[in-house]
Amino acid sequence: MIDTNVLVIGSSAAGLVAATTGKRVYPDKKFTVVTKMPKTLIPCGIPYIFGSVGSSDNDILPAEKMFEASGIDIVYDEVIKLSREECLVELKSGEKIKYEKMVMCTGSTPKRPSWLKGKDLENVFTVPKDKEYLDEMQKKLEGLKRVITIGAGFIGVEISDELNKAGKEVTLIEKLPHVLGLAFDEDVASRAEALLIERGVKVMTDKSVKEIIGKNNKVEAVLMDDGEKIEADAVILALGYDPNVTLAREAGLAIRKSGFILVDEYMRTDDNKIFAVGDCAEKRDFVTRKPSNIMLASTACAEARIAGMNLYKLSAIKTFSGTISIFSTAIGKTGIGVAGLTETIARNEGFDIVTGKFEGIDRHPGTLEDTHKQFVKLVVGKESGVILGGEVYGGLSTGELTNTIGIIIENRMPINALLTAQIGTHPLLTASPAGYPLIKAAEDASSKIMFKNGS
Amino acid sequence: MIDTNVLVIGSSAAGLVAATTGKRVYPDKKFTVVTKMPKTLIPCGIPYIFGSVGSSDNDILPAEKMFEASGIDIVYDEVIKLSREECLVELKSGEKIKYEKMVMCTGSTPKRPSWLKGKDLENVFTVPKDKEYLDEMQKKLEGLKRVITIGAGFIGVEISDELNKAGKEVTLIEKLPHVLGLAFDEDVASRAEALLIERGVKVMTDKSVKEIIGKNNKVEAVLMDDGEKIEADAVILALGYDPNVTLAREAGLAIRKSGFILVDEYMRTDDNKIFAVGDCAEKRDFVTRKPSNIMLASTACAEARIAGMNLYKLSAIKTFSGTISIFSTAIGKTGIGVAGLTETIARNEGFDIVTGKFEGIDRHPGTLEDTHKQFVKLVVGKESGVILGGEVYGGLSTGELTNTIGIIIENRMPINALLTAQIGTHPLLTASPAGYPLIKAAEDASSKIMFKNGS
Fold first, then answer.
1. Is there a contact between B53 and A367 if contact means CB atoms under 8 Å apart?
2. Is residue A443 part of a domain?
3. Residue B181 DSSP SS3
4. A148: which strand partners?
5. N or C: which terminus of chain A has fewer CB atoms within 10 Å of its end residue's CB?
6. Residue A422 is nearest to which of B329, B410, B425, comparing CB atoms?
7. What is the sign of the dihedral through the CA atoms of B342, B346, B348 and B353?
8. CA proximity to B376, closest of B309, B312, B435
9. Do B104 and B134 fall within a single domain?
């Protein structure tokens, strides 16, 4: 029997940040992390082990070292039962741990939908956060040439691009009209798609998969709804992830209809001794106030910080309430990012909006090497003038520019404030001050709501 | 005699943005720009014409095209007299222009201090925004090997690095303990300095120049205060810029003791028909509320937008009042940026502050190519918790990350809001979510003001 003050379940981004933040804030408490994973992967790096990073061994989160440096105990085991009345968990090994507070960071598992015939054939893969599985998958893929990815969200796009880079023949199938079609408006999604095609990925959009066909229990082809049959040596299912909530459910914690563990603003479940953070925990959209099924390590880390700070007292009062989807990805040397609402989502939700767009370049003068086109789109509430979302397509500074837009949204900045705000520019680092796409997009949006009759 | 509604003097960043913004907002008004420059340079690109950009011909601001596209008239001439009672200016050619509103964007001129003996010798150069001068300077420099730059502010550092890149033997002399010592704290300035030295620039700090010695009226050496004599074929004075206010002064407009034209929040001079914008116009620091002598094209553009919008009615009410210094620069593939107050300035001004620092990397995993160290420092009001400034040293995304910090400062975000804020991360674009230096620096700062007794 182990006695601890704070028990953290999970050692990926959420568990790591929850435990280290908590220990920093409450140094006198004993923290114990239980994890199934002897080596935790950097989650966002997983698609890149198939190309740019080379191997999962180059994508290790130094969690163990960080726990040790912080004076946090680690137990490599699996929690199989939680008794809330006794504040006790049981591990697979038979060991038990008594806790005062708990942070559940149980993560998520790739979907392998039951309707999909052939989903369990050999060489049908998913992309879990599991080093052992991924190592075996990578080894198997070595001998296989033709890969079909089903689902063109971030994971599907990233892994397709990387496998293409690594010399595979990759076909990416998506049922929406464009790749990344949930995350981005057509303006940006179509640019990303064109780039992916240019780099050699075969993209099939507006197409649904009927089943995966096998022979001798091995993948042979994918059969489309329209009857087309595409031969394949391997299939990767990139159809999203389900939150891991079995432990929580069996312990009687409230689970939302959406499948996530119910949490409040401070990441507390309906048992106030137990916090839940990351992919397993409920999120609410910052703007629409609706449940959101975003699963991002960056979001998990923000939640983990809040849980860690609020373990024994509510100290980290959230200034921003709700989750903003801030994604970015890269295809080659091109970055693509989004923060907040897209135009499509905003209109579907009934927001009365205008958009502002501008395409410029991310260096000045454009004669400098390494100059990329930079496209910025903003979504702005028509009457409030409040900036609700933004998308960026550009060079490798896209990630940080997307974060600038995120901070703008979290501060509920109105378009007038952005128009009169100051930015810094430099020839080798940014667009020009007179043609800075973020500000020019704000001008474009403002011209639709302000300045209608000049004189 | 030309009759116009809005007269804009100057065609660089400030004039361009003031005129095009004004015309967009007041399309029925006639706009006329008077400029001395047949070809306007991109101001921030000027140091780079000596290396990366190759020639001033590759650094042209397409001002003419943009004026034409907006339906704005251009007159290539110089305003030599302003009669405010008649709302009339006189040009060098003898032509006169009658205006309703005017925007003065008369810019600045490099300092050639009168105390400096030898300042007018042949091959002693400054760095003005003047294509003809710079072309001649570049031609003369071709045959010269040993260059001394006096003054290690942004222009001095950038031009020294570029001339070094172009094969010159460059010595950079600075009287402060570090290069960029006014803009950055020692943490960052010393890193920039080490990089500059590593790239081959000879850096002499804590050293004052006594005079420039010549022979046959040509530069031969620089004599230091301590008696050392450094031989040189050319000297570049990078000692800052003086605002061009002769026209304003002669017309009786109020000029501040600091030498800048007095303006209000809406960029109006004390003659409300006349606006002043950019290097010639007074600025007030966003945080310290003291006069600021920042001269940046990005600041000028923000001011120009405000002037352009407010020409005939006060429509662009400034949400943020005052100027934040947001700079960034690059040495090779390393970016260096600052927004708001440095620790040194904050302490000198009497602010009770704490700082937060973190050094991480700007990709994740760090095994990815193109990974740079990324150092972030934040300056935070101790009791208010408000973020007053930030500095970044990192890769090429530094410019946009510095802008994120700028938006944070303009929104007066407290450290708690940043700690619980969301950012987006991606392996190829940013630091990891668990080790994102901006948030980690916020944690470091917060640990000095919050979370002192955990339990």
1. yes
2. yes
3. coil
4. A171, A235
5. N
6. B410
7. negative
8. B435
9. no
List of chain B residues whose C-beta atoms are within 8 Å of the C-beta of residue A430 = 328, 399-400, 403
Of A24, A53, A420, the CB nearest to B447: A24
Domain stop point among B309, B339, B355: B309
**A&B contacts, CB < 8 Å:** 326
Could you say which of B210, B239, B268 is where a domain stops? B239
Residue pLDDT, tens place only, A135-168: 999 999 999 999 999 999 999 999 999 999 999 9
Predicted local confidence at residue B318, as pLDDT: 77
B225 Cα to chain A: minimum distance (Å): 34
Q: What is the largest CA-CA distance in chain B?
A: 79
Say yes or no for a CB contact (<8 Å) between A403 and B424: yes
Mean pLDDT of chain A: 95
Share of chain A above pLDDT 90, in %: 92
Is there a domain that residue B284 lies in?
Answer: yes
Are A326 and B44 in contact (CB < 8 Å)? no
pTM (two decimals): 0.94
DSSP-derived secondary structure for B257-316? TTSSBP--TTSB-SSTTEEE-GGGB-EEBTTT-SEE----HHHHHHHHHHHHHTSSS---
End-to-end CA distance of chain B: 79
Q: Note whether B324 contacts A422, CB cutoff 8 Å.
A: yes
For a pLDDT cut of 90, what percent of chain B falls above it? 92
What is the residue range of B212's domain? 124-239
How many domains does chain A contain in total?
Answer: 3
Task: Kindly tell me if the per-residue pLDDT of A238 is higher than 70.
Answer: yes
**Which is it for the CA torsion B309, B311, B313, B317, positive or negative?**
positive
Question: Could you tell me if A355 and A408 lie in one domain?
Answer: yes
Chain A residue whose CA is closest to B329 = A426
The predicted pLDDT at position B261 comes to 98
Q: What is the mean pLDDT of residues A53-75?
A: 94
Residue at B219 is within a domain: yes
- Chain A residues with beta carbon closer than 8 angstroms to that of B25: 451, 454
The pLDDT score that the predictor gives to residue B420 is: 87
Residues B128 and B269 in one domain: no
> Is residue B208 scored above 50 in pLDDT?
yes
Residue B360 to residue B366: CA distance in whole angstroms: 10
* Tens digits of residue pLDDT in A270-289: 999 999 999 999 999 999 99
